[in-house]
Amino acid sequence: RIRPEVIPANEINVTFADIGALDDTKESLQELVMLPLRRPDLFKGGLLKPCRGILLFGPPGTGKTMLAKAIAREAGASFINVSMSTIASKWFGEDEKNVRALFTLAAKVSPTIIFVDEVDSMLGQRTRVGEHEAMRKIKNEFMAHWDGLLTKPGERILVLAATNRPFDLDEAIIRRFERRIMVGLPSIENREKIFRTLLAKEKVEENVDFAELAAMTEGYTGSDLKNLCTTAAYSPVRELIKQERLKDQERKKKEAKGKNSEDSSTKN
Ligand code: ATP
């Protein structure tokens, strides 16, 4: 039987400080996640019910996974990642007991954030043609356990999910996400902030103009900006390798020359 990986809060390696821009999103998450997980006693029903489902949607690479991890860390919650693309092979064809095991585990290590990446592939359209029976069972079981959380205000478990395809989710699922937060492409100001965050601990030449870099990267996601910075960071290394290679060639040439002249002097 599968046992999803649990990351305890103090072992999560992403903090809010590592995430550039997305200030409003961070704030909303703090409000929705921190108190309900830390102080469930304040949410005893009525209008003040703890939120059990939050959906982050937007293009790939915009920082949804990072946000989920950072909020878990900040809330002191265990993080369980149930990305369908990685576990489908283990789950497929197995019965819904795996889902029960997931929620039991989540309760054991609570407070817990169950993060469902690519939620559309796991909890997509309920009546998709040709849908595997096992898949349907998993989905129904997941929803049943998820609904069960609503009747247990003391249970400190929250389902946080991410998708690039919110339109593939059916009404029943969408309704269960009480809050849906769009994580879109960064604006020019936000790209500048992301550059500053990504390069905060790096040695950067003084004349680097962050505003200009931001202006040149329209349409880039946070992930694209990270790749750009990594490539740039490699360029001095590449230069060094080139110089080392040149030096090496020079040395070899000199050695060969020396050897040649030695050879000719012994002949004479
Ligand atoms: P996907 O939908 O593909 O899973 P995602 O929205 O979950 O993407 P992440 O996995 O969180 O995106 O981001 C990918 C990588 O891009 C991160 O590991 C990080 O290095 C970088 N990144 C994305 N957004 C930001 C940001 N706002 N600040 C700093 N780094 C970022």
From TrEMBL:
Residues 244-268 have a biased composition (Basic and acidic residues). Keywords: ATP-binding, Membrane, Mitochondrion, Mitochondrion outer membrane, Nucleotide-binding. Signal peptide: none annotated. It is found in: Mitochondrion outer membrane. Residues 244-268 are annotated as: Disordered. Residues 50-187 form the AAA+ ATPase domain. This is AAA+ ATPase domain-containing protein. The lineage of its organism: Eukaryota, Viridiplantae, Streptophyta, Embryophyta, Tracheophyta. The chain holds residues 513 to 780 of 840 of the full protein.
